[in-house]
Amino acid sequence: MSRRLERMVWSSLFMTLGCTRPAEERTRRDLDVGRAESAAFDVEVTSGLAAVRGLSQKELALWLSAPSVELSFLVRETSPLELHVENAMAALVLTDLDLGGVLPLTSGADATKKSWQLTLTPGSRHFRLAAPGADENGHFRFALMSDVQEAIDRIEDVYRVINAEPELDFLLGAGDLTEGGEVDQLSRFQRELATLDLPYYTTLGNHELGERPPAYQDWFGRANFQFVHRGVYFTLLDSASATIDPLAQDWLDTWLANGREAVHVVAMHIPPFDPVGTRNAGFASRAEAAALVAKLAESGVDLTLYGHIHSHYSFRNAGIPAFISGGGGATPERVDEIGRHFMVFEIDAKRGVLSSEVVRVDARTQIDQNE
Amino acid sequence: MARLADPGRTMVTRVSFACVRAIAALILLSVTFQSAAAHAAEPVTRDRRVAAGLAIVPGAALHGSGHYALGQKKTALALLITEGVGLALLIGGVSTELASGNSRELAGPALASTVLGSGLVLASFGADLYGTLATDGGAVDLLPRAPPQLESEFGYRYVADPHFSYGHFVVESLTLRQGDFRFTPSAWFASNASNVRYRVEAAYRMVGLEPGELGKLDDHLEIVLGGMHQRYLPERFQRSGLELTLDTRFDFCHIGETLRGSFIDLALGYGVAKVTYDIQGVPVPADTDDLLLARVGLGVALRGPAAAGSEARVYYDHRHDDYAAGFLTPGRISGVFGKFGADLRWFFRPRLGLLLDAQVGSAVVAGFSLLLREGKLRTQGALP
Question: Cα–Cα distance between B16 and B362 in angstroms, integer?
Fold first, then answer.
């Protein structure tokens, strides 16, 4: 028996005994995100960076997971198309990559929800959604906010304080948007996002796993993905089951190689190591955690961001700055009194992470009210 | 606008909580041993089948119901009290976790309380069932035990972990006892040389039999200082740790005669480890990591063609830093659990035995070892 076959037989036998790949199914579902077909055309979002939220012969609705997204159409018959895009940067424009030129908006200037009217002609057609300057190395600020869960009724406070922060390009999330990941909760989360002036690019958390398969990917897109913004690489991973599926680990190897020479931010929900090891709100396997951290360190990752623990922690793993920010409102750690908060990072494609700041929402709201 | 059809499941996750299968297999084996020794006077008069049924309903809620039906009221009360203590620890632990928002200051003690409480609750239920089903009338007690002065293990394990390239391991350990002291070095070697783990334990027995000292109970209380070093060569890191554990075995015969031959293992401790990274050309600082050590096991001594020291055990081990690591689930709660396991030590000759071992965490570990022991053993003959 060949070594490979022998290993396969043994592994199959033993893995059926246990739950060694709880994230496998949803990791494979990532591959379906951003693909859809209608009678008139097929559409594919490059790298799955948007969820197709609705499709008919004349309309296509996308939920973006990244600041810049490319769309490929295989058009079978000439058809007009209304393109509706949600979770977009305010300055987002649609460029026709085949014919050149920016297409005019039909609605949604300066908003996260935008629409365009296109005419698709038969053949292969390519478009790009991106803000001007998105491809140029630059200097920008983004915020991090995770773990909303049951506190959705009060999320407007958090968004109000985030909206007041100057010059934020987007809000990054590390999961646990909802209490159980049910469709009505995802829908409610989306409705509340209407009060946020920024797009919210996020992965999922363990609280999105209340349904099988999770509805999350149909709403907010891939759980594992990478995007580049102004020369900075952002990789979001699905660690919601306290592990990263081996398939996602394979993708991660490619993404780490992509970002090796650049400033690279990696975010996920459950941190590999809980800074309070006796609590073990980290990966189920400390060995897997260390292997991941070694991989990130070897690839020169500049910043790691996590959620899951409802407080704020600042530490380092293998020398990489690491922050846990679970301040979206879910039951907070009581003793530390940090409470609801989000973080703001200033980052530069050449100089790396320049600063980080914790913004305590309730303290800020109190100050605003007093003023 | 039409919603997209659900893309559906692309692949069914290979999920089954069939650690239960492995554990059940071991329990079945131990039951086989029990039935091989059908015999002996029963110390009780009521119908055991009814009692066993009552040990399940309402016994699942009211532990000791089976013994109460057998007329063993003191044992029944003791089991009920054990359940109460376990529930108090369990509820206290969980409510502390919830009320404190899993606070960094309280999470460790709260988790320890939860694990030990859960263990006591399961143990009192299991003991009730055992006492109503075991039919040897305490015959297991006829054979005094003494810990061997020297015990060695040589065996094989398969580790099915989708994250690591290793699979087959050679396992060796040696235990030396002198008076109240025990010294146990052990090692695991991956056949593909990708991984190795060395471990040393030095223990002081505060309560319990010494080698050569014969007694009828299997109680002990040890304080264990452990050291560990593990190398993950392809993954380029090493983990070295120290730990201190209080390790105890309590023989259930203290609770009632019908429970002779059953026991609970409890261990509680704290470990700290240094993780060093071996990345070529990149100076990477090491990390420190700490962990809660808590273990609860419930076991029975084997009858039939088994020499003293033969036993089967199911257990929960909270540690997350070994090959099996923590249990994974596809749902909302994942990561916090440790592993579940079962082992069976069968001495088919006074000095020669077999160990079967299975663990399910984020990896599945299973295998066997040959056991050799030496010392002053009272092992003449099997149980009646």
Answer: 12
How many angstroms separate the first and last alpha carbons of chain A? 77
B24 pLDDT above the threshold of 60: no
Cis amide prior to A213 (ω within 30 degrees): yes
Tokens of B175: 């235990």
Asked if the model's pLDDT at residue B109 lies above 60, the reply is yes
* Site of tokens 């600042």: A314
Let me know if A327 is exposed, middle or buried by CB neighbors in 10 A (0-12, 13-18, 19+). buried
Residues of chain A with Cβ-Cβ distance to B104 below 8 Å are: 275-276, 279, 311, 333, 335-336
Work out the angle between the directed axes of helices A155-164 and A361-370 (0-180°, nearest 10).
70
Reported confidence tier of residue B14, pLDDT bands at 50, 70, 90: very low
Helix then strand count (H, E) for chain B reads 5, 12
* Distance from C-alpha of B311 to C-alpha of B297, rounded to nearest angstrom: 12
The reported pTM is 0.89
Mean pLDDT of A173-187: 95
CA–CA dist A217, A50 (Å, integer) = 10
pLDDT of residue A18: 56
**Distance between terminal CA atoms of chain B?**
77
A48 touches chain B (CB under 8 A): no
The mean pLDDT of B2-29, rounded to a whole number, is 36
Which one of A21, A54, A206 has the shortest CB-CB distance to B13?
A: A21
Sequence letter at residue B268: L
User: What number is the average pLDDT over the span B280-301?
Assistant: 93
What ipTM goes with this model? 0.89
Return phi, psi of residue A248, to 5°.
-65, -30
Element (H, E) at A343: strand A341-348
**Closest by CA position to B224, among listed B203, B250, B205:** B203
> pLDDT class for B382, splitting at 50, 70, 90?
very low
φ, ψ of residue B381 in degrees (nearest 5): 75, 155
Nearest CB to A334; choose among B103, B275, B284: B103
Which tokens is A174 given? 């590390």
Burial code of B353-381, b = ≥16 C-beta within 10 A, e = fewer? bebbbbbbbbbbbbbebebbbeeebebee
**b/e sequence A47-66, b meaning 16+ C-beta within 10 Å:** bbbbbbbbbeeebbbbbbbb
Residue B288 has pLDDT above 60, yes or no: yes
* Sequence-distant (≥ 6) Cβ neighbours of residue B350 within 8 angstroms: B307, B377, B379, B380
For A57-107, how does the pLDDT look when each residue is reduced to its tens digit (9 = 90+)?
A: 889 999 999 999 999 999 999 989 999 999 999 999 999 999 999 999 998
A54 touches chain B (CB under 8 A): yes
Residue A364 has what pLDDT? 74
- Structural tokens at position B239: 């983990």
Instruction: Decide: residue A293, CB within 10 A, 0-12 exposed, 13-18 middle, 19+ buried.
Output: buried
Q: Which residues contact A255 (CB under 8 A, 6 or more apart)?
A: A226, A233, A235
Residues in A closer than 8 angstroms to B162, CB to CB, are 11, 15, 20-21, 246
DSSP for A157-179, please give it.
HHHHHHHHSTTEEEEEEES--SS
